[in-house]
Amino acid sequence: MFRWTMPNSTQTAPAFNLVHRRSSAQSRTADTKPKKRKKGGSQYLLYPDQAIRSLGSVQQSADFIGKKYITGQRQPINIFSTNYYAPFKLYQIKPVQAEKAAYAIENLIQLWRKYPLPQVLRLDNGLQFRGSGSGKRSLGTFLKFLLNLNIKPLFGSPSKPWTNPPHRGT
After folding, report:
1. How many structural domains are present in the chain?
2. Is pLDDT at 21 greater than 80 in this prediction?
3. 57 — phi, psi (to 5°)?
4. How far apart are CA 106 and CA 129, in angstroms?
5. What CATH number did the domain enclosing 123 receive?
6. C-alpha of 164 from chain center
7. Which residues fall within 8 angstroms of residue 47, CB to CB, at 6 or more apart?
């Protein structure tokens, strides 16, 4: 049990930085050193680059960037983002009414009228891309759309955001 006693009027409280230094020094041990971050230290967590390159030379990613609220507006806006990252770089964002497969398909069709179809489309695991979330498992509209165009969908690993597509210009 912690008990607080009031100091006598002649006693002065120690300075805060002194208390902080002493408590910090006690919590540290002699053999611990601050860890230095290695550049590329999480490289093993990413997709294997060589295997991805072998899937196709034209590669693209796509994702919805969630609801964004703008000051002065009551309704949020939804954004669809796409990024060609091999063999050239092209980044595009478009506002859409909702995070639905139909809006992704509509935007990709418009983009593919001007730019080449990718051989690989890298996606996250959103329901709008993969299909049903519960009940009978089936291919969703978006996957059928890609497969009918001979585009290989490449999904990020669930619960590992570092494997998600580089759709935000990275």
Report:
1. 1
2. no
3. -85, -30
4. 13
5. 3.30.420.10
6. 6
7. 154, 163
- 20 in any annotated domain: no
Confirm whether 10 is domain-assigned.
no
Give the Cα separation of 71 and 68 in Å (integer). Answer: 10
Residues 6+ apart with CB under 8 A from 87: 57, 58
pLDDT value at position 3? 47
DSSP assignment of 32-90 equals --PPPPPTTTTGGGS--HHHHHTT-SSEEEEEEEEEE--TT-SS-EEEEEEEEEESS-E
Q: Which two structure tokens, joined as six digits, stand for 122?
A: 């890298």
Bridge partners, residue 30, by sequence: none
CA-based torsion, 109, 111, 116, 117: positive or negative: negative
**Global confidence as pTM:** 0.65
pLDDT tens across 54-101, in order? 888 899 999 888 788 888 888 888 899 999 988 888 989 898 988 889
Q: Among 141, 134, 122, which residue's Cα sits nearest to residue 59?
A: 122
Residue type at 23 in one-letter notation = S
Ramachandran assignment for 72, one of left (phi > 0), alpha (psi -120 to 50 degrees), beta (any other): left
